Amino acid sequence: MNERISRSLSGIPLLFALIAAYAFAIWLFIDGARSRAPGGPLLGIALFVLLAFLSKGFFQVQPNRAKVMQLFGRYVGTVREEGLRWTNPFYAKRDVSLRVRNFESSKLKVNDNDGNPIEIAAVVVWQVVDTAEAVFQVDDYENFVHIQSEAALRQMATRYPYDSHDTDSPSLRSHGKEVNAHLRDEIQERLARAGVDVVEARISHLAYAQEIAQAMLQRQQAGAIIAARSRIVEGAVSMVEMALDQLSKRGVVTLDEERKAAMVSNLLVVLCGERSTQPVVNTGTLHH
User: Fold this and answer.
1) pLDDT tens readout for residues 222-232
2) Strand ranges (E), 3-143
3) HSE toward the beta carbon, residue 237, CA cutoff 13 A
4) Which of 27, 33, 240, 253 is the most buried (most CB within 10 A)?
């Protein structure tokens, strides 16, 4: 069922006309009572009752809201025009917000693609774009948005690892833009039937579950230490290579292979060591 526009009239002119008609009905009632003619006041009373019934056709539409119209249970259309409006008094009217809304899901505990338990939550920004589908396709579209968003978040979280050891493969922690786009598409697919458009979806909370958080923190720290050591060793080797090359080119000293090996060993110890080194003066030779 798709939304269609229901015709309505501007309420301001009709309101003034109705006020004038009420005044006329009161005059008829008073005039009939004074004349004491048989059934004199009845015409005024009948007109007053008719006008009271017609008054039920007035309703207000606030900015970015709409009214869904039903006639004896049948959908007849939606009014989106703002202000005071008038329509068939028999129509039942249901108010639907077209404003952009957002909510934050609860923290869900799921297993990521590696099987590690994680905690994840998301913020979803959404709005109703089809009032007929929102009202008639689902029982409670607001509750439907919340439940389906959390279901989509659970499913999305199982498709990615929390952290990737391979820099090229996406993960929840390192590829936020890609993960958020996937989450939005996943939620939109579920909410399309309810006439809802997902404006934005993004992860608001991401952490390892409490029972493995400490172990995973140590794992991350170890990985960071290994990466830092690798960079240090790489830089130290480059510096040693540059030193040997400069000594050879400038002819400062001629070193045999054994002396080169000793020099390389000493430089690597100095450059890669965590603490400052204490120099030791060798008064002999490498062979004695």
Assistant:
1) 666 677 777 77
2) 9-10, 58-61, 65-71, 74-79, 83-86, 92-97, 101-104, 108-111, 117-128
3) 6
4) 240
Nearest to 25 by CA among 55, 61, 69: 55
Are 116 and 181 contacting, i.e. CB atoms less than 8 angstroms apart?
no
Task: Let me know whether 164 and 186 are in one domain.
Answer: yes
* Residue 181 placed within a domain: yes
In whole angstroms, how large is the CA radius of gyration of the chain?
39
The predicted pLDDT at position 182 comes to 93
CB 44 within 8 A of CB 32: yes
What's the helix, strand, coil split of the chain in %, to 5?
50, 20, 30
Residues of the chain with pLDDT under 50: none
pLDDT for the residue 203: 93
Residue 279 falls inside a structural domain: no
The burial of 164, by beta-carbon neighbours within 10 Å (0-12 exposed, 13-18 middle, 19 or more buried), is given as middle
Furthest CA-CA distance within the chain:
144
Which of 153, 179, 208 is the endpoint of a domain? 208
Integer Cα distance of 220 and 144 in angstroms: 38
What domain count does the chain have?
A: 3
Which tens digits make up the pLDDT trace of 157-169? 999 888 876 667 7
Residues spanned by the domain of 48: 9-92
Residues 227, 180 share a domain: no
